[in-house]
Structure formats: C-alpha cells, structure tokens
Amino acid sequence: MKRIALAVLAVFVAWSVMDFIIHGVILSSSYEATASLWRPMNEMNMSIMYLAVLISAVTFALIYSRLVARKGLATGLTYGLLFGVATGVSMGFGSYAVMPIPFNMAFTWFLGSVIEAAVGGVIVGWVIRE
Q1: Where are the domains of the chain?
Q2: Using CA of residue 99, residue 101, residue 107, residue 108, what is the dihedral sign?
Q3: What is the distance between the alpha carbons of residues 90 and 96, in angstroms, rounded to a whole number?
Q4: How far is CA 65 from the centre of its chain?
Q5: The Cα angle at residue 121 between residues 59 and 8, in degrees rounded to 5
Q6: 125 and 71 in contact (C-beta within 8 Å)?
Q7: Which pLDDT tens digit goes with each residue over 20-79?
C-alpha cells in the first residue's frame, strides 16, 4: 500500500508540473487566441482541476497495481504509452472534432497526454515493481 501511495503522489506531482508547462507555457498564446472558448481565469476552479488530476493519478496507479501481472519499468512504460494514446486521441483530436480550436492545440493536447502518461507509466513501473 505504501508503494501505491508513493506512486500516486509522484504521478500527481509529475502530471501537475507537466500540465503547467504544457498549458501555462507552451499553449498560453493558443489559449489567449481562443479566449472566448474558456472561462475567464478568475472563474476557473483550480482546486477542482487538482482534484481531477489526483483522482486520475489514483486510478492510473490502481489500474497498474491491480490489473498488470508483470510489473516493472518496461511494462510501466508500455502501459503509460498505451494509456496516453487512448486518452490523448480523445483529449486532442476528439476535442478538435467538436470545438473550434487550432490544430496545434489539439496535437499538443494529444502529445502532452502521451508524454504525461508515459512518464506516469515509468513512475508506477519503477515504484510498484515485483
């Protein structure tokens, strides 16, 4: 249980830092250009965003812990890449299909999801191993 808790904390921190880099730095000009699509900053609820990241990190680590038989770094990376492609396609290109966002934003959401999940996979594979 300690390893799962440590993995959750590490994934949460890693994903939060990467989210800041992706959304706060890399995509900041894209968000400004599409400001009419988003809530104003003073209306955004960051505590809900962090809660969503925490719940995602818990779920990500528990799926790996409970459902992956052969645990290890390579398996964690594979799990993370597959998870990232599955969520990234939905996040990036699924959103692009229904929202008037620039393609580079959709692609960055996709690629960011893949990279974040791959990093998360490496973390769970390293922390929760046999």
Answers
A1: 2-127
A2: negative
A3: 9
A4: 18
A5: 45
A6: yes
A7: 999 999 999 999 999 999 999 899 999 999 999 999 999 999 999 999 999 999 999 999
Cα distance between the two ends of the chain: 13
- Residue 76 has a pLDDT of 97
Q: Does residue 20 contact residue 53 with C-beta atoms inside 8 Å? A: no
Q: Output the pTM of the full model.
A: 0.92
* DSSP track, the chain: -HHHHHHHHHHHHHHHHHHIIIIIIITHHHHHHTGGGS--GGG--HHHHHHHHHHHHHHHHHHHHHH-SS-SHHHHHHHHHHHHHHHHIIIIIIHHHHS---HHHHHHHHHHHHHHHHHHHHHHHHHS--
- What's the CA gap between 30 and 3, in Å, rounded? 38
For residue 103, is pLDDT > 90? yes
Tokens of 64: 């790996």
The CA-atom distances, in angstroms, between 44 and each of 15, 47, 52, 78, 129 are 19, 9, 13, 34, 38
